[in-house]
Amino acid sequence: MAVAAAAVSRPIGESFQNAARRRVLLIAPHGSYRTAPFLAAAKIRGIEVLIASEAKHSLVSAYAQGLHIDLDDPQASLQTILREAQRQPFAAVLGCDDASTELAALAASKLGLPHNPTTAVRLARRKDLARERLAQAGVPVPHHWRLDLTRALAAQIEDIRFPCVLKPVALAASRGVIRADNLNELTHAAARIQVLLARTGLRKAQERETILVEEFIPGFEVAVEGLLTHDELEILTIFDKPDPLNGPYFEETYYITPSRLDLPTQHAMHETISAACTAYGLREGPIHAECRINERGVWILEVAARTIGGLCGRLLRFGTGCSLEELVLMHSLGEPPELQCEAGGAGVLMIPIPQAGILRRVEGVLAAQKVPYIDEVVIHVREGYELVPLPEAASYLGFIFARAPSAAQAEAALRAAHACLHVVVMPLWKGVSL
Description:
By secondary structure, the protein is of the alpha+beta class. The chain has helices at 2-9, 12-21, 35-45, 61-64, 74-87, 98-110, 118-125, 127-137, 183-200, 205-208, 263-280, 316-320, 324-332, 365-369, 407-420, and strands spanning 23-27, 48-53, 67-68, 92-95, 144-148, 164-168, 178-180, 210-215, 220-229, 232-241, 254-257, 285-294, 297-304, 345-351, 357-363, 374-379, 386-387, 398-404, 422-426.
């Protein structure tokens, strides 16, 4: 009875404050890959997460019952968030995708919570502005040029060096990224990207009308997940990308950890990514970086103020005992978890889409799951749905996860499992209007 009495006599304000300390607002575009992992991580850690999205009529309860905002109207969305925070405070505000990180930074700033400056987040998601800032700060980046699609290309491409890579300035996951080795290829790539941008639904006209062109940087590519705390970068993991990424498209496939790069190279990478974060003005929360390494050093391809896409965040359980989303949520609350180091290696294959058409079926999934060291095979695309390969693609066919005694064995297991799969695709016949 004494316990019950103590519970009854606890001040209401104290209970309210304790709940607010573990309440997080997650701003998430409808259909984001990242939402479900964040919700799962929150459940594991006993954290309340409210989703803010445009999905008022979604069949997914977390969206439908969440906070409804309009990402095209950031000021109105901000007022909606502030009213909710007045009703019941948040301990942190997170943006899980490029489309939401700027609003999350703005809301956190208004609420007096740890945040990145909105200008820093804007730089991190706009590849052309990011390149300019890094070059000004002396951080190694490729030579680069900007193409304005509202003007004739002829006068804009005279000084471009080959080989080069064309990129939309505000898309992710290698979407619309095309290598060009000569003027003819550049012209065709620009036209192809222009068609893609017209279909993407990017909210800002400048993002639909601009292409970044940069010198192709050869070398070994890695992805890096990290957390910033008061400007200090902690690298959580480095993913090696063992397949050469030389174009003409840059489909990411294998991510393997721990990295097989030597310690001096990893240290140089940490310093270069830290310098990029400082140049942007990023100081709090998750970062996802892409780098190329060659005899000239470490080159920044991207530093985004968000986590990695897809389901790849699961891989961090291998090196830390927690998913990436758990680490980000705990970090946002100022509650660093106890990390558990583990020997061996792990990896993921983002299953590429082999050709355009309608998916009939994926054969060999059971055989792939039986390959030694394979943890799981996840096929995301349902039978009967259209498949779109890179560079127009916006998603993968699915994911294969492996855990093994070494990184090399994890990679070998993923390759063996992938070889078991046979993707049956039916041609897509577009209707013709007469």
